[in-house]
């Protein structure tokens, strides 16, 4: 089963599970009069939308490269992740407004029904199972979307636990306003999660890398190749969670073109051995000792702390 099929299968399982949980919590929230449970149900509804977007994105990502998009459509995942963060933010903002309005509503409030507690408890178990499944599948195919969705569902578990605790204290202390306060805290947590997902997706879209130590691994790989010197102007960007690597090296200017090519190829092989998930590598060869003007792009050993290979 390829990446697209796993992504689509995991998304449909997420849709089925979250649809049941969302509908159950929304109905329980309305019948029991619990704003916190209703907010939790709306949050689960956003997970359904997220999974639908993931299915659509998986179909785009599977398109082959063409003259217009020579690197393919893998970055559609990063764009979709940013869209998902906006959906989550909007849902959290809506819940925050409703919760604040409820807190300052001085009319008499009824205690939520016990149905809310039972549904919330079941929801916690269901969300744990969905989160673990999504995370394992995301790691299996190295999918940013699936992993982000798994983290979002893990947050949902914490949210539901908070709802459950809030409901218990609401009953114990006989204070219905605690339900509204719980809803407000949950909405703030959802907004914070959406901002974090939004910022994480910027790395790929701005052609950056999350783990800067990968540069160390590249320089160390060059050190392992006899005849390869002074790796510099290294540039790394991610395309769908795989690396596109370009760098310059220096070799003896008196060797043949064929020998220089062999050294460059060996550098590529060493990098592949040390760095996982590589899309492509471009190694540019220059004469040893050549003076380099200040480059606008790329970094060298001076820019990162490097453990030199011995």
Strand order across the largest sheet = 1-2-3
* CATH homologous superfamily annotation of the largest domain: Cation efflux protein transmembrane domain
CATH architecture classification name of the largest domain? Up-down Bundle
Shape category: elongated
The strand count comes to 3
Q: Would you tell me the structural class of the helices and strands?
A: mainly alpha
Number of discrete helical segments: 8
Describe this structure in words.
Residues 306-310 have low confidence and may be disordered. This protein has a three-stranded mixed β-sheet with strand order 1-2-3. The chain is elongated and about 85 Å long. Helix 1 (3-32) packs antiparallel against helix 4, helix 2 packs antiparallel against helix 5 and helix 3 (76-103) packs antiparallel against helix 6 (177-205). The protein folds into two domains: 3-203, Cation efflux protein transmembrane domain (Alpha-lytic protease prodomain-like), CATH 1.20.1510; 214-303, Cation efflux protein, cytoplasmic domain (Alpha-Beta Plaits). It is built from eight helices and three strands, in the order αααααααββαβ. The protein has 310 residues and is mostly helical.
């Amino acid at each position: 089963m390829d990446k697209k099929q796993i992504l689509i299968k995991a998304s449909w399982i997420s849709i089925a599970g979250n649809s049941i949980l969302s509908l159950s919590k929304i109905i329980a929230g309305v019948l029991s009069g619990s704003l916190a449970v209703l907010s939790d149900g709306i949050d689960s509804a956003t997970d359904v939308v997220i999974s639908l977007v993931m299915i659509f994105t998986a179909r785009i990502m599977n398109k082959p490269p063409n003259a217009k998009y020579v690197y393919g459509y893998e970055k559609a995942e990063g764009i979709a992740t940013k869209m998902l963060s906006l959906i989550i933010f909007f849902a959290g903002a809506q819940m925050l407004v409703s919760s604040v309005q409820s807190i300052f509503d001085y009319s008499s409030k009824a205690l939520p029904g016990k149905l809310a507690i039972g549904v919330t408890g079941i929801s916690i178990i269901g969300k744990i199972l969905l989160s673990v499944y999504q995370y394992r599948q995301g790691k299996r195919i190295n999918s940013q979307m699936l992993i982000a969705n798994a983290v979002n569902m893990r947050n949902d578990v914490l949210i539901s636990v908070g709802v459950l605790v809030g409901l218990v204290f609401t009953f114990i202390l006989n204070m219905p306003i605690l339900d509204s306060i719980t809803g407000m805290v949950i909405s703030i947590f959802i907004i914070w999660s959406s901002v974090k997902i939004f910022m994480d997706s910027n790395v790929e879209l701005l052609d950056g890398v999350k783990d800067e130590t990968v540069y160390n691994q590249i320089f160390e790989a060059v050190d392992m190749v006899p005849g390869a010197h002074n790796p510099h102007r290294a540039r790394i960007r991610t395309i769908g969670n795989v690396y596109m690597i370009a760098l310059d090296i220096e070799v003896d200017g008196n060797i043949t073109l064929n020998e220089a090519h062999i050294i460059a190829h060996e550098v590529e092989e060493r990098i592949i051995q040390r760095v996982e998930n590589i899309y492509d590598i471009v190694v540019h060869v220059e004469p040893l000792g050549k003076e380099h003007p200040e480059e606008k792009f790329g970094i060298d050993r001076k820019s990162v702390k490097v453990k030199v290979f011995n």
